[in-house]
Protein: HD domain-containing protein
Amino acid sequence: MSTPTPSLADLPFEAAAFAARAHRHAVRKDNQTPYVSHVFRVCLVVRHTFGFDDPRMLAAALLHDTIEDTTTDADDLVERFGPDVARWVAALTKDMRLPHDAREDAYTKVLAAAEWQVKALKLADLYDNLGDCRSFSPNGRRKTAAKAHAYLGAIRQNLPDAVRPALALVEQRLASLEVGLTS
Structure:
């Protein structure tokens, strides 16, 4: 028996519960912080830092790592959260079956061609990851910065004006991180 898709207003609440269950055993790179805190922060960035309030975007922010990092698949998300959320989350998912370099190349190509909502969601993910990496070693911070540069190069392609303020905030955060690496 399939679960009915929640109302648009309830979508983020259902997605928060789903993400919490899906990531329940995972932790961040510090091996202490529950992983789900990342997806919650990404959702907060989308809404409160970038100013996007579409419930589908908020749900996709909460679910953005479920296909890549859990046993969830795109069909689960279509059934539970609708085709837009599932499509956006799928676009934010790296194909872990590919070798690292091929995977990153394929991912940046998807980001370059993605809908603006996907680009805004990835910017929120980058914003949080850039803030969260302050406790990393200098080499870890450099790796995070290099990855951010690659993704930003893809995101900038055909970026609509509505997303440019979010891009500027991520670029500022990246520049701040890089200043800390040179001082």
Observations:
- Residues 113 and 152 are 13 Å apart (CA to CA).
- The longest helix spans residues 164-182.
- The chain has one domain: 11-182.
- The chain is about 70% helix and 0% strand.
